[in-house]
Amino acid sequence: MITPAFELTQDPDFLTIIIKVPYARASEFDVYFEGEDFKFYAKPYFLRQLTLPGRIVEDGREKASYNTDKGTFTIRLPKEIPGQYFEGLDMLTSLLAPKKSRSAKPLIEEIAASAVLSEEEEEEFDWEIEQTPYEESAESTLPLQYRYGFGNLQSGVFQRLQDELSDVIDVKDPDQTPVDERRRKRLAAEAAKFEPDHYLADFFEDEAIQHVLKYKPWWVDAHKKMIALQGESHQEHDTHTFVVFSEEEREQLRKFTNKSYLLDKRRRHHVYLGLIDILLAYCYEICVNEGDKNVESSWNVRKLSATLCWLESFTSIHDVLVSFGRRVLCYPLHRHFGLVTRAFNDTVMILQLGKAAVLKCLLDIHKIFTENDPAYILNDLFITDYCIWIQKTKSKKLAALSESLQKTTLAKSHIGFELEELEAAAVLVQEEESMLKAAGTVSKQQLPSSESETSDSEESSSTSSSETEGSDSDGRESSTSEDGKINSLQGTLQAERTAPLIDCNGLRQGTNTSTFEVSDEKSKVSLQSTSVPGKLVEELEKQMHTAIRLSEQPEGLDTASCILQEKEENHVSEPDRFSKDTTGKANFLEVSSKTNPLLFLCSRNEDE
Fold it and tell me: Example GO molecular function term (predicted)?
């Protein structure tokens, strides 16, 4: 048989049950209802039993209809007490729970289950776990295994899942690690992970964080609607007014197996406080990603919840808030105290909306972990049991829990990372930097006068340099004129000299000791000043690196040598020293017998 999909709604006088039975034989169906029991059968669907939260009656006003297009049965049943509010119609898993056996001798009996339920209804929760002195237990022959999971009901799970351990939780070997040691290791790991630079960067540059803080999840609007209806006469309202479950969520509720949890007072406290811790992490994830899921969603939820990541068992609400605040400032991308406050306020709103809102959040967490390969273990350890357990929780318990949470305060000084001191020091540094910048601005405003002085000095230096260049050019012109006079003087002296003429090509092969070198450019300039044919000029430009070697030495001097080299731009023409052969033969240079003033004595042999 197939359990059909169904949902329940109500108005003041009737309870409406909608059952989806596609491809069923509508001509053959059976409906049974009496008191709190309801059963339905239409082959191949069988709704074995619904345990209703209130009583219904058969008085002729009941009605049933079938929609062939949608394949749904709609059954309206009158309430035994008109105007009665049926609580928990969305808690489908608890509605599917079989009724307790009415046999005088039940095969399985939950010992003290009714007493626990009555105790929960009567006692006033203070949300603080009683402190008991530590007693050292005697060593056992068997290895001791510590418990964890929902209500600390499980142990030995990670002995079978060692490969998945490091990807899911941070505590090593949880089966052999007591709760106190887990807490010490967790605090040490958080202290080592905290980075002041990252925190201060998010503190001062918080544009992205301020943007995500503006996001409003679905529970904000639902909470506003609930506040708006608080002034009305009816204090209790249908959860459909504020919280709506999707078809996928309803299907998940139908898949859960109903369970009963026997929890003592201490374990119930652990469960409630663990619920706050998980909801805080979930609210952070929804806020920073603005309701969208990504590959980091599973990591965010389990990493920020010490209940999931370190299998922590808290003893007070304040401890839960401190742990969550520390982990927000240590692990995720956005590490801002404003996100801690935002998650705190969102969790208060969810608890005030009742168990339907809490269940919707838990179902979303269950889906996130189901889609992540290693995190599915946390569903088996915590989330599935929370989804089943919350459906049976009294709404006034959640209301009391939300009130206690709202009264609890969390300051930066409680976190333990000296946040206020870090912020104060960073503010002082910023003030000093701003003062230095202001001083730099003032000094820049005083720069124009000094710059004018600098420009004046530059102008004067440029003027002096121009004058120097002018004088240099004048000197070059005067030297050029003097060279012209010298050349003319040499021309008059050539007639007195009867020394043999030396071929220009032979000058390169001379072996005399005294040597003079005349640069190519000077020869080029001097050749251009004469009437030598163009071809000869080109030939001389290529070949002439002339050296004049003297066979005679002046009296009173040892063998002297001087090499005269001048730059190309300073060459002086010597037209009188060259003669032109009218027959087209080579040109010759005649050496004067007197000392040439252009020749400078460079060195003596004895001085070398």
Answer: unfolded protein binding
